[in-house]
Amino acid sequence: MEFHLIDFIEHALNLVILFLLLRTFLYKPVSKFMAEREAKFQREREQIDASREEANALKAKYETSMKNAKLDAEHLAEERRKSAERDAEELHKKAKQDVQELLTDAMNQAMAEREGMLSDLKTQTAELAVDIAEKILEREVKQEDHERIIDSFFDKVG
Prior knowledge:
Layout: H1 5-137, H2 143-157
């Protein structure tokens, strides 16, 4: 086997031409395709990350809304309970006041009836005393004497 410089140069030149052709027609398009594919995957990853962040934000907003709704419901229930307690207390006070008013009215009515009965009793007693005195004295007693006798009688009785 002999070494021929021309064969060597020819092979080297073929190798350089093949390298340039492969580089131009294969490596650059494949590199471009790979770069575009990598960019596409990067955009998709960014979109997925953005969607995930948006979903997390919506989830946090939903959870916050649910917590606020629960707190509002608890607050409303507490207000209703307190309102019902206040209403019950007011009804209790009103009933107590009504009972007290009825009792006071009944006492006042009883006192008025007692006073009326005492007045009637005084009048009847005075008339009876006047009748007795008239019979004893056999004369008519004047109004002034009558009042004096009544007052004297009730001072002794009462």
